[in-house]
């Protein structure tokens, strides 16, 4: 079992985690500029770290090309993501944090807690498959639960699904979604896409309490949905929505 003192440096862990996260969320090839934006550093800083990561055997990257993790880099990223996402879950379920408060706390703690401590958290929580934002939690062996999902922003009008994942990188956005009563497990229907980059009109709520609202593109790009259960889909034809 690995102790915190035996792991890669904090900066190395942050970099491989960001690379994996950008790959996982399907936002296209991972580029130096995308990494610099996520890490709030300069492109030259990213280039310098990528050379180090390459020497460590964690990434493959050609000049002006996209960045990819090696098998070793994947393993390192999944280990830190497991710690991060289990810590977020523990902070919410055991300590009463809200979902917009936990990301920064977990960013600090993920580098100092032992694997034994994280395993105890997992057991205490019943080995959850996802964190409070719906991000899948890797197993100790590095397996990641797979789900059929799509970004709400990429869905066609008329699509109905269940919100299963929310981008947790912006606390202000998480607070906005909470204020709009949009969260994990909610049934949501994309009613209309307004032209010229306008908001999406979505329908949410339980039967008899449904409401339509405008949802900005930034928020829609932060929400992943999974297909609604078959019984809900049948209910839609009769004008009935699913439960939140």
From TrEMBL:
Fetch the InterPro entries from UniProt.
DtxR_MntR_Metal-Reg, Fe-transptr_FeoA-like, Fe_dep_repressor, Fe_dep_repressor_sf, FeoA_core_dom, HTH_DTXR, Iron_dep_repressor, Transcriptional_repressor_C
Native source organism of the sequence = Streptomonospora algeriensis
Arranged from A to Z, the UniProt key words for this protein are:
Activator, Cytoplasm, DNA-binding, Iron, Manganese, Repressor, Transcription, Transcription regulation
The residue ranges of the Ferrous iron transporter FeoA-like domain are: 150-227
Q: Which PANTHER family does the UniProt record give?
A: IRON (METAL) DEPENDENT REPRESSOR, DTXR FAMILY, TRANSCRIPTIONAL REGULATOR MNTR
UniProt xrefs under SUPFAM superfamilies: C-terminal domain of transcriptional repressors, Iron-dependent repressor protein, dimerization domain, Winged helix' DNA-binding domain
Keyword set includes Ribosomal protein: no
Protein name, entry field: Manganese transport regulator
Which domain of life does the UniProt lineage start with? Bacteria
Gene3D superfamilies the record matches: 2.30.30.90, Iron dependent repressor, metal binding and dimerisation domain (1.10.60.10), Winged helix-like DNA-binding domain superfamily/Winged helix DNA-binding domain (1.10.10.10)
This protein's assembly is summarised as: Homodimer.
Q: Where in the cell is it found?
A: Cytoplasm
Similarity section:
Belongs to the DtxR/MntR family.
């Amino acid at each position: 079992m690995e102790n915190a003192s035996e792991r890669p440096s904090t900066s190395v862990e942050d970099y491989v985690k960001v690379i994996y996260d950008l790959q996982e969320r399907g936002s296209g090839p991972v580029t130096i500029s995308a990494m610099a934006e996520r890490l709030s550093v300069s492109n030259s800083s990213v280039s310098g770290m990528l050379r180090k990561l390459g020497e460590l055997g964690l990434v493959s990257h050609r000049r002006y090309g996209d960045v990819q993790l090696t098998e070793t880099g994947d393993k390192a990223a999944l280990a830190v993501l497991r710690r991060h996402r289990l810590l977020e879950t523990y902070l919410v379920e055991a300590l009463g944090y809200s979902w917009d408060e936990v990301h920064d706390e977990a960013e600090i703690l993920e580098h100092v807690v032992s694997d034994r401590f994280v395993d105890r958290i997992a057991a205490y929580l019943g080995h959850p498959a996802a964190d409070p934002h719906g991000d899948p939690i890797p197993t100790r062996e590095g397996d990641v639960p797979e789900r059929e999902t799509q970004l709400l922003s990429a869905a066609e009008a008329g699509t109905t699904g269940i919100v299963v994942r929310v981008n947790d990188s912006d606390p202000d956005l998480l607070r906005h979604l909470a204020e709009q009563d949009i969260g994990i497990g909610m049934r949501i229907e994309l009613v209309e896409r307004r032209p010229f980059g306008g908001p999406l009109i979505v329908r949410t709520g339980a039967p008899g309490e449904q409401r339509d609202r405008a949802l900005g593109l930034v928020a829609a790009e932060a929400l992943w949905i999974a297909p609604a259960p078959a019984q809900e889909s049948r209910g839609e034809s009769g004008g009935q929505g699913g439960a939140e």
